[in-house]
Amino acid sequence: MRAAVMGAGSWGTAVAKVLVDAGTETVIWARRPELAEAINSRHVNPDYLPDIGLPEALTATSSPEEALTGADIVVCGVPSQSLRGNLAQWTPHIGSDTSLVSLAKGIETGTLLRMSEVIGEVTGVPQERIAVLTGPNLAREVAEGQPAATVIACVDESRAVTLQGAFNTGYFRPYTNTDVVGCEIGGSAKNVIALACGIASGVGFGQNTLATIITRGLAETIRLGLALGAHVETFAGLAGVGDLVATCSSPLSRNRTFGARLGEGASMAEAQAATNGQVAEGVKSCTSVRALAEKHQVPMPLTDAVHRVCHDGQSVEEAISSLLGRSTKPEIYRG
């Protein structure tokens, strides 16, 4: 099989390395020609993973047509809010039976579509050919070959199994799941909760607070997922609690790092600088996830608080006060 990874950020690069290590012929598309040249000549991504050696078998190009022509698997590795525009350019070069795999974890602003839905709407590809790769997958650790597991979600189970083989290495273990909705909601919401954990850490709160945020954030995520038709079991797995714990607890998480700087008193611009210019998906996703929750009348107070801090100018202290001042209620609601 031949794979094209469209996007040469840290996660796209790590996934391209996984594919090559799994024995899949792989080309990575980089928007800037000089980055593609560096990958080809020096076998390193100097902008995002400068100290990680890449396989010599991995080739790079700045031409979307060159990357996509003949690809059996197209991995969409650009940020969620730029996926639609990129897909419009890529679609003419995508094959008639190509599998499309989304790496982006977010809800599109305005449309409130999940990434698999965006892919289907722009390309016209049926959902049976669209998959999602998600889980506790911090890019640097995966690129270093540290043991990790992931989920490949697709409504077509046989296609998911085929993709499972293309990504399976001695250090990267893929599982399959047909609950695409649950996997995407878990991946989108966890970025927002990681921002909240970062904010709490930046303020100086300890493990009790972080455990509370993770647990109540998971409850919010499950409520939204179930309202959209997801399976509750998904949120107990790698795409749910697994991804949530990794993103909320690791200093490698851009969302947690961004939130920590806000908690320390930094401005939005200063917090962005702390992530070295890389996208913290939760900053935009908090707005679209909140809007999706409101559309389905699902309460998500943590997500709402993160949105107010990031976009409405509310202070961290005010957001914390509003959360603690909410009326008490049972932990488990059985309505």
TrEMBL record:
Assigned EC number: 1.1.1.94
GO biological process: glycerol-3-phosphate biosynthetic process; glycerophospholipid metabolic process; phospholipid biosynthetic process
UniProt GO molecular function: glycerol-3-phosphate dehydrogenase [NAD(P)+] activity; nucleotide binding
Compartments, as annotated in UniProt: Cytoplasm
UniProt keyword annotations, A-Z: Cytoplasm, Lipid biosynthesis, Lipid metabolism, NAD, NADP, Nucleotide-binding, Oxidoreductase, Phospholipid biosynthesis, Phospholipid metabolism
Chain sites annotated for binding sn-glycerol 3-phosphate: 105, 135, 190, 243, 253-255
Pfam family, one: NAD_Gly3P_dh_N
Keyword Cytoplasm attributed: yes
Binding of NAD(+), residues: 7-12, 139, 254
Main location: cytoplasm
InterPro entries: 6-PGluconate_DH-like_C_sf, 6PGD_dom2, G3P_DH_NAD-dep, G3P_DH_NAD-dep_C, G3P_DH_NAD-dep_N, NAD(P)-bd_dom_sf
Catalytic activity: sn-glycerol 3-phosphate + NADP(+) = dihydroxyacetone phosphate + NADPH + H(+); sn-glycerol 3-phosphate + NAD(+) = dihydroxyacetone phosphate + NADH + H(+)
Binding site for substrate: 105, 254-255
Highest taxon in the source lineage: Bacteria
Keyword Transcription belongs to the record: no
Glycerol-3-phosphate dehydrogenase NAD-dependent N-terminal domain boundaries: 4-158
Active-site residues from the entry: 190
GO cellular component labels: cytoplasm
The Glycerol-3-phosphate dehydrogenase NAD-dependent C-terminal domain, residue ranges: 179-320
Binding site for NADPH: 10-11, 31-32, 48, 105, 139, 254, 279, 281
HAMAP family the record matches: NAD_Glyc3P_dehydrog (MF_00394)
Family to which this protein belongs: Belongs to the NAD-dependent glycerol-3-phosphate dehydrogenase family.
Function statement: Catalyzes the reduction of the glycolytic intermediate dihydroxyacetone phosphate (DHAP) to sn-glycerol 3-phosphate (G3P), the key precursor for phospholipid synthesis.
UniProt cross-references to PANTHER family, sorted A to Z: GLYCEROL-3-PHOSPHATE DEHYDROGENASE, GLYCEROL-3-PHOSPHATE DEHYDROGENASE [NAD(+)] 2, CHLOROPLASTIC
Protein name: Glycerol-3-phosphate dehydrogenase [NAD(P)+]
Taxonomic source organism: Gordonia paraffinivorans
Name of the gene encoding the protein in the UniProt record: gpsA
